From TrEMBL:
Classification via PROSITE patterns: TPR
SUPFAM superfamilies given in the database record: TPR-like
Protein name in UniProt: Peptidylprolyl isomerase
Keywords recorded for this protein, A-Z: Coiled coil, Repeat, TPR repeat
Transmembrane segments: none
TPR repeat start and end residues: 15-48, 106-139
Gene3D superfamilies: Tetratricopeptide repeat domain
Pfam families cross-referenced by the UniProt entry: TPR_14 (PF13428)
Keyword Ribonucleoprotein: no
Key word Acyltransferase present: no
Lineage, opening ranks: Eukaryota, Haptista, Haptophyta, Prymnesiophyceae, Prymnesiales
Regions annotated as coiled coil: 1-28
């Protein structure tokens, strides 16, 4: 006997029940199970079995679909540590689908900012979070996320500086090692000039150390200058955009 097809109301009721189950699991920190419930709920509200709907059913569908999508994104974020930079493509597509219908949905904008930050797109994330903080100055979650983002952005900059500093040290160490090895070979053949050779090696080492410190400071200054220019450029873009489209969040 063929299974009876669910009505629109049955699909909506099932989605509502699954959303509530997912919310309880989310509150308990069981993100994988909560994600599974939201996924199952989405299959009901996005099912091909949903035929022509009455206007009130369409409103109910949208009311259920949005939290199912955004809560599934929250689970995805919680299941992927923020210190591991990666792009969560499925979650991004889900947030975009919400913003397509509700471009001013604050929770969707917040999730998009979090996804930008998770992908290492710090400037985009910071711009969104700063706007949200201006729009909702009493929302602690927005301020906390912005503070966390700035901390991670600074850590990424320091990591980049350390990488290039390490490369610079390696480049300076190799010729120094060659000079020291050459000095040792000369000492083996010329014991009478041992003291002069030691002095020369110390002088070379000190000179290279001073050069490294100087270059490291120059690199750090250039990095700070680059960051300042990027921020000014971003501020200019925001200023132009705010004046041309005052209603864009």
């Amino acid at each position: 006997m063929a299974e009876a097809r669910m009505t629109n109301q049955q699909h909506l009721a099932a989605a509502q029940a699954l959303k509530e189950e997912g919310n309880e699991l989310l509150q308990r920190g069981d993100y994988e199970e909560a994600f599974s419930k939201y996924e199952e709920g989405l299959r009901h509200v996005e099912s091909e079995l949903l035929y022509q709907m009455a206007p009130e059913e369409q409103v109910e569908l949208l009311r259920l679909r949005t939290p199912l999508l955004l809560n599934s994104v929250l689970c995805d974020l919680r299941m992927n540590p923020e210190d591991q930079t990666r792009r969560l493509a499925l979650s991004e597509s889900r947030v975009k689908s919400v913003l397509k219908l509700q471009p001013k949905n604050v929770k969707a904008l917040f999730r998009m900012a979090q996804l930008h930050g998770r992908a290492g797109e710090f400037r985009e994330a910071r711009e969104l979070l700063e706007k949200l903080c201006q729009q909702e100055p009493d929302e602690r979650a927005f301020r906390a996320e912005l503070a966390s983002l700035k901390k991670r952005e600074r850590a990424a900059e320091l990591e980049t500086a350390a990488f290039w500093g390490g490369a610079l040290r390696k480049g300076l160490a190799e010729p120094r090692l060659e000079r020291l090895e050459g000095g040792q070979a000369n000492d083996a053949h010329d014991q009478d000039q041992e003291s002069d050779g030691s002095f020369n090696r110390r002088a070379v080492t000190m000179g290279l150390a001073r050069l490294y410190v100087m270059l490291e400071r120059v690199f750090a200054s250039l990095l700070l200058l680059w960051r300042s220019l990027v921020q000014k450029w971003g501020a200019g873009r925001r200023h132009d955009r705010d004046h041309s489209s005052p209603h864009v969040l």
